[in-house]
Amino acid sequence: MSSFPLLFDLGTAKPTTRDVANTVKAGGSHALTEAERRADEARYQEVTCRSALNRVKGMPFDWTLNPYRGCTHGCHYCYARRYHTQFEMNADDEFASMILVKTNFVEVLTRELDRPSWTRDLAALGTATDPYQPIEGRYRLTRGALVALARGRTPVGIVTKGPMVVRDRDVLADLTRAAGCTVHVSVPTVDEDAWRLLEPGTAHPLQRLRAVRELADAGINAGVLMAPVVPGFTSSRSKIERTIKAIADHGARFVGYNVMHLEGGTREHFLGFIERAFPAMLPRFDRLYVRKYAPASYRKEVQAMVRVLQDRYGLSKRHTTQDRNPDAETATPEQAAFAW
Ligand code: SF4
Do 43 and 31 touch, CB atoms closer than 8 A? Predict the structure, then answer.
């Protein structure tokens, strides 16, 4: 693609993600005139990708896989919002309403996995978008990727808020046998008010927990990420306790958590949301998020509270993943009495 407005003068060829970025830079997202508007009011732009596996360093996985970019779940705290700026789109509304669909994703991934040099390192699916957001029901790119990964005997970890993941339990079982597979279902809270406010496009938390139960019953290593804990919305002891109890009741094989962090476009979006909807809370967020992470003392309090409650509901006997922030070290249970 040369330049806007020649975006769709390419016969049947679809634009690349770079083409899309160039077009949006020149004319805004409205210049994506072939992006299809669907019933959920989001627009979907089909694109082609050159590579599917994306190498990462310093993470507990080696590669990331994202068949979509943008996410109609639209969580206000989503750290992936800032990645939308790579396509010259904003981290606010456009992150949740202009979705890029990499239609050749499975084909490209299959080619990469077939390379003799492929070392079958751990891949993470859904680090910059939810691989089971509603449009997956139409394109089935996530399912196709899982089939390719099973065939390529490549271990995978999945993060999702989409109960649609149970659709693929047959492939996930294949992957479990072939290479290993872990499904992290994200359920930050079971509190309905917080859910509605913070995660406007997602399925009900209990629906997600039922998905965990179904996957675990099918022999898949499925657990819950209670992440992020959002100060003032999901952080009270009673809300964390209800959430951990519900996670335990649904047979999660592990539980992880972290405290919300804010940077880049995510920071601007989240604080803007607070300013518009809950202005009285803004000074507290300003104090708590002087930097990217909430203070270590705060995170230690959360950690202590979570540990106490994990013990109470028998979750500490199962595998637990914890806040990976370097200074989130052990705190004593007595500290776990904060209110916000
Ligand atoms: S579901 Fe995940 S990727 Fe989608 S908006 Fe929410 S946090 Fe972000």
Answer: no
Separation of alpha carbons 85 and 21, rounded Å: 9
What's the pLDDT tens digit per position in 118-157? 999 999 998 999 999 999 999 999 999 999 999 999 999 9
Q: What is the 274 CA–ligand 1 centroid distance (Å)?
A: 18
Q: Which of 80, 72, 7 is nearest to 46 (CA)?
A: 7
For atom 3 of ligand 1, the residue with the nearest CA is 129
Tens digit of each residue's pLDDT (9 = 90 or more) over 85-115: 888 787 778 899 999 999 999 999 999 999 9
H or E element at residue 320? strand 319-321
Q: Angle of helix 169-178 relative to helix 205-217, nearest 10 degrees? A: 50
Task: Single out the residue of 163, 115, 112 nearest to residue 136, CA to CA.
Answer: 163
Which stretch of DSSP H or E encloses residue 26? Answer: helix 17-27
pTM of this prediction exceeds 0.85: yes
Q: Is 74 near ligand 1, meaning CB less than 6 Å away? A: yes
Indicate which residue's Cα is closest to atom 7 of ligand 1.
Answer: 78
